[in-house]
Design a protein that fits this description.
By secondary structure, the protein is an alpha+beta fold. The chain has one domain: VC0467-like (3-Layer(aba) Sandwich). It is 31% helix and 22% strand. It is elongated and about 60 Å long. The N and C termini lie far apart (45 Å).
Length: 279
């Protein structure tokens, strides 16, 4: 049975997240299609190594706790960095060897109007292929109303980050990642998404970015994952427009209108292709 669209989706655990729940049912897009692999990642998330928001706390509870006065020990920075990263390390770093083995693409995905699942409706994603034929990615246009400093109140350098934290996807929502605008790798635990854009997953690397160049990155909670063949199947079903990756899209300041603008562009391209095919 599809979930009731009136029930908030996973990202709604973030207070102030700009979710726009679907006004229609989700029957045409079974959520399991987009969420497969969650059990595997959940098991990985039990291992240590990730930059976590609040040790041992689900993100929904962690954000509530950070909004009020924290009890002793709730915001110890050393604990925040350790519990959930193995899932992202294992998932994202799997993309590294793939680059030397075969030509695997990085793409921008724009949800078509046919995609009515409330977790992905009207989203723009950046996705990259992994060595096993799957894909991982982050949602680009879901800013929250939470600052990095509010999630890490005991970490002074986090106060320098100007932009809000973004919701990157429903998997690994206790872990922080960073999309970095840089011509060189920001450090260990990073992968190249496109020229000039890296995704940082490693704890120490993210800390270094926050401390040395806090506003040259965009910070995300959670990510999206597809098993081998799933993304291609979704594209063939008409759920995504596929576009070339562009740093301007990744770091767009006008995320509120980003989806509408990219849908307009995609429709123009499709119309031109249809016209050329007829001629």
């Amino acid at each position: 049975m599809p979930p009731d669209p009136r029930i908030p989706a996973a990202r709604c655990a973030l207070p102030g997240c700009r979710c726009r729940p679907s006004e229609s049912s989700c029957t045409s897009v079974p959520p399991k299609t987009l969420r497969a692999g969650a059990a595997d990642r959940a098991r990985l998330a039990q291992k240590a190594g990730q930059r976590q928001l609040h040790t041992g706390l689900p993100f929904a509870k962690a954000t509530v706790l950070s909004a009020r006065r924290a009890a002793p020990g709730e915001t110890m920075m050393t604990n925040l960095l350790r519990t959930a990263a193995a899932a992202l390390i294992c998932t994202f770093i799997a993309a590294l060897p793939a680059r030397s083995q075969q030509d695997l693409s990085t793409v921008v995905l724009v949800a078509t109007p046919a995609l009515v699942d409330p977790e992905y409706r009207q989203t723009v994603l950046l996705a990259t292929a992994t060595e096993n034929g799957g894909h991982v990615g982050i949602i680009l246009n879901r800013p929250t109303q939470r600052s990095l400093a509010s999630l890490f109140p005991d970490h002074g350098p986090s106060k320098a980050v100007v932009e809000p934290v973004f919701f990157g996807g429903p998997f690994g929502i206790t872990a922080l990642t960073a999309a970095v605008h840089s011509n060189e790798s920001p450090g260990p635990g990073s992968i190249v998404l496109m020229p000039g854009v890296f995704l940082a997953v490693g704890v120490q690397t993210i800390d270094k970015i926050i401390e040395e160049r806090p506003n040259e990155a965009r910070y995300y909670i959670g990510h999206v994952g597809w098993r081998p063949g799933e993304l291609r199947a979704e594209v063939e079903r008409g759920l995504w427009y596929v576009m070339k990756p562009d740093a301007g899209i990744v770091f767009s300041k006008n995320t509120e209108k980003l989806w509408e603008e990219l849908v307009r562009q995609a429709r123009q391209v499709n119309a031109a292709l249809d016209s050329a095919a007829l001629n």
